[in-house]
């Protein structure tokens, strides 16, 4: 009978399990990502922060990260957005420095959503002011075949 | 506080809004974090091992590609534990963890099959749509709060 493989779990591994990473994305005209970093430094919490091109990543124990995130978001609640991240900042499997450059997996989706954030910020401002939108969602329309034909023909001419 | 499954499961906007309005978003990132931090034989742990397609059999048939089943091993438990859901239909872009069209179809199908409160909406493209987007999500999440309070008071009365 094959002996069972025993996996030793060190206290460091236990600590890792309680650590979380959050990405803070700023979409504010009055604040820069560097202001977020300064706020994180001032919080003197037990967290690690990394500034990236799309926001700030904060890693540490759950309570500390939540407290720092709360402090940062309170600076401009309608323009600072937060999401979780599975991998640690600088993880070799995701960090582009060890993957030969190029955007990291998931970056395109994040960038697309970051482009939508100004609309969400305006939506949040309007919601808290109690304003209601003048019109709802407009259904996406498919391109009319005749219009497409017209465009092709006008290009050929 | 209810657990809300969101689609796209990696969405920054949805996870932020759900947390902002007092609920817990069920997101792919949580599953990934748990997976890569759990100590196992693989060191460093791989994202998807041979075990995931086996676990995915609960959600997809054996003929379904292993990639779909592997992804469903992560998304499936989220759907099972959800108390409500928000689906953004036809997102223009779905890369990274969200890059598999068949998994996305199956995820949406399974969320719709669950008998839970569900909001289906589109990503905003104009300012008015942005306002409507936030308003619909906020109203939906607040109604969940009211419903849970009502059901608690009914239980107390009984």
Could you please describe the fold and organization of this structure?
The complex is a heterodimer of chains A (157) and B (158). Chain A has 157 residues and is of the alpha+beta class. Helix content of chain A is 42%, strand content 17%. Chain A is built from five helices and four strands. In chain A, strand 2 and strand 3 (55-61) form a beta hairpin. Chain A is extended. The model of chain A has no long low-confidence stretch (mean pLDDT 83). Chain B is an alpha/beta fold. Chain B has a single domain, classed as 3-Layer(aba) Sandwich (Rossmann fold). Chain B contains six helices and four strands. Chain B has helices spanning 12-20, 28-37, 51-55, 66-81, 101-113, 127-157, and strands spanning 3-7, 24-26, 84-89, 118-122. The radius of gyration of chain B is 17 Å and the shape is globular. The model of chain B has no long low-confidence stretch (mean pLDDT 86). Classes of the chains: A alpha+beta (157), B alpha/beta (158). Chains A and B meet through helix 1, strand 1, strand 4 and helix 4 of A and helix 1, helix 2 and helix 6 of B.
What are the defining features of this structure?
heterodimer; A: 157 residues; alpha+beta; Alpha-Beta Plaits; 5 helices; extended; B: alpha/beta; Rossmann fold; 6 helices; globular
């Amino acid at each position: 009978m094959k002996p069972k493989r025993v996996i030793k779990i060190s206290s460091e591994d236990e600590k890792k399990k309680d650590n979380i990473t959050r990405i803070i994305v700023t979409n504010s005209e009055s604040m820069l990502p560097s202001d977020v970093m300064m706020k994180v430094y001032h919080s003197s919490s037990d967290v690690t922060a990394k500034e990236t091109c799309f926001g700030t990543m904060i890693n540490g124990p759950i309570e500390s990260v939540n407290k720092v995130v709360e402090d940062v978001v309170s600076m401009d609640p309608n323009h600072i957005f937060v999401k979780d991240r599975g991998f640690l900042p600088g993880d070799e499997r995701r960090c582009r420095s060890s993957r030969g450059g190029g955007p990291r997996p998931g970056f395109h989706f994040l960038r697309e959503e970051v482009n939508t954030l100004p609309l969400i910020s305006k939506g949040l401002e309007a919601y808290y002011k109690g304003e209601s939108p003048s019109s709802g969602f407009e259904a996406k329309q498919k391109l009319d075949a005749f219009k497409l034909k017209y465009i092709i023909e006008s290009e050929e001419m | 506080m209810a657990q809300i499954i969101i689609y796209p499961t990696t969405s920054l906007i949805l996870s932020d809004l759900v947390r902002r309005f007092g609920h817990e978003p069920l997101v792919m990132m949580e599953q990934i974090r748990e997976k890569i931090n759990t100590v196992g034989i693989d060191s460093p742990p791989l994202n998807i091992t041979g075990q995931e397609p086996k676990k995915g059999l609960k959600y997809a048939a054996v003929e379904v590609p292993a990639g779909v089943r592997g992804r469903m091993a992560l998304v499936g438990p989220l759907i099972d534990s959800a108390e409500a859901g928000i689906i953004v239909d036809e997102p223009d872009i779905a890369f990274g963890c969200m890059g598999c069209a068949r998994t996305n179809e199956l995820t949406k199908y399974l969320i719709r099959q669950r008998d839970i409160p569900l909001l289906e909406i589109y990503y905003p493209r104009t300012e008015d749509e942005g306002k409507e987007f936030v308003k619909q999500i906020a109203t939906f999440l607040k109604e969940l709060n009211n419903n849970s309070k009502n059901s608690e008071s009914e239980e107390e009365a009984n």
